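Students often ask what a 'structure token' actually looks like in practice. Rather than answer in the abstract, let us consider Tet-like 2OG-Fe(II) oxygenase domain-containing protein, a protein of 520 residues. Its sequence is given first.
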Amino acid sequence: MSGIPNKPILPMSTSKQRSSKSKRRRSSSGHQPRTDISVEELEPGQAVKPPDAGPSSRAKRQKRKERTTARYVAAMQLDNEIMAMRDAQSDLDAAAEEDRIASEALQKAREQEAHEAEYERVGKEIREEMRQGQYSVAEKLLQMFTGMNNIKLHVIRDEDRQQYIQALKALETKRRQPLSSKDPEFPLTQTLPIFQPGFHICVHEKTMNILLECRITPWGEMNMKERESKLQAIHTIMAFTQSANGIKTNGSQTFQDHAKKSNNNVNKPKPHGNMFAGGWHRTKGERGVHLSRYTVDKSGGSETRQKKIDIYSETSEDFSHVAEEYSEGLRRMYPLGYNVLKQHAEMYDVPSFNQLEMDTLHGKPIVNAFANSITITNDDFANYQHMDRDAIAIAYGWWWIGWQDPRTKTWHVKDEYDHDKVQGGEFLVAEHGVMIDFSRARGLVEIFWRGNSDHHGTMRSTSSEGVTRFGTSIQITADAVAGMAAWKDDGYNPAKIVGHASRLEFAWDSMQRAKSKKRS
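Now compare that with the structural description of the same chain:
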């Protein structure tokens, strides 16, 4: 035993315990343990070897492997079958969707065909009515499309009115002032007056193009919400005129063009009434500036000027509501005209008159593209027959009567003061021989006209004491489009525009300089 170094001889009891445990394990696994080897039989350094795995054990492992492979193959086949079923269902769903789309397209085509047939039928009736001088079906059709009641269709005959226009201009030259419907030489019998409440649409006899629209709504016939919203905008506009600088260079109020054409050497008469403007224009009096806000009135003492600055600031901020009302009014009266104006403004980045500043910090200065200016007239304003220098043939405006409080000098709208308090002042579109006879109208008058393509103008008027007729219009001016393009080419340089804050700062500095000059 001394030949086995450092290997203790286990007690017999321990060896028996191991043998017993080994027997139990082998019995449970199906193997018969060998009992013919003892520790005493081992050679020095020899260890007990496990029983050799025979052919039976290898066969079982092979079978387990085959079963695992078979299960994997079966699972893959099942997955493939499921995917195939899903693909088939998707194909069925796609086919069903195609059938549904085709069915809907067929239904729409049938509906469109029926609509076109109905449109053609109604069109024939309208043309027949027009031939007979009756327009009831056309008016009903327009009522359906606009949702407005009391529609009156006026068909403008296809005739050359150049002789009519030239006669009017000759009369203006002869009188050296804008036209008056009271003038015995005015062709009143050749002119169509519009003054009744309702929605008036003037269309060309052959092309059926809309030439002019006018909506006359007495205040008492408006629903309360509409009236309050419109009056809010109107009071903002009237207050703005008490702070804005008057427009002294409007070409429609000058006599120069008529004098040149008639070769008469006459002095330029004094303009009739007042004109104001809010919004953006291409300034001519500020060197190096491409676009600017219209200015604050600088007349009066320091206290008066401070009050005007405050009114200008407050009312300009309220122009957002004014823009909303005019936008909605044009959209309701003439949807196509609204779309043309809006798309042109967006295409050429024309800022709305209610946008006070240009956002030059974020690369897109225009926040709201719309009409860049709103013009306002009062105090028996009148001008000559002319065409505007607008970018597009879309102009839209409101007319109403304002009463001035003799104590506060502020303007208000009152039921007892209506258009009959101002005689004359018709809006004459000579191009079509149509005039809006305000004196016989009531309430709010809205007009759409083609300002840059049709001769038009406001005739002379006479107002009762304490009242005036306000007239307004919104438009995209050609100068503003050119100014915006120049500013864009200049890299949107913020030093080349004058926004609302700068305009107020200039007005404040001017007032302070006037104060200092007066003290010195």
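One point worth highlighting: The radius of gyration is 45 Å. Ask yourself how you might have guessed this from the sequence alone, and why that guess would often be unreliable.
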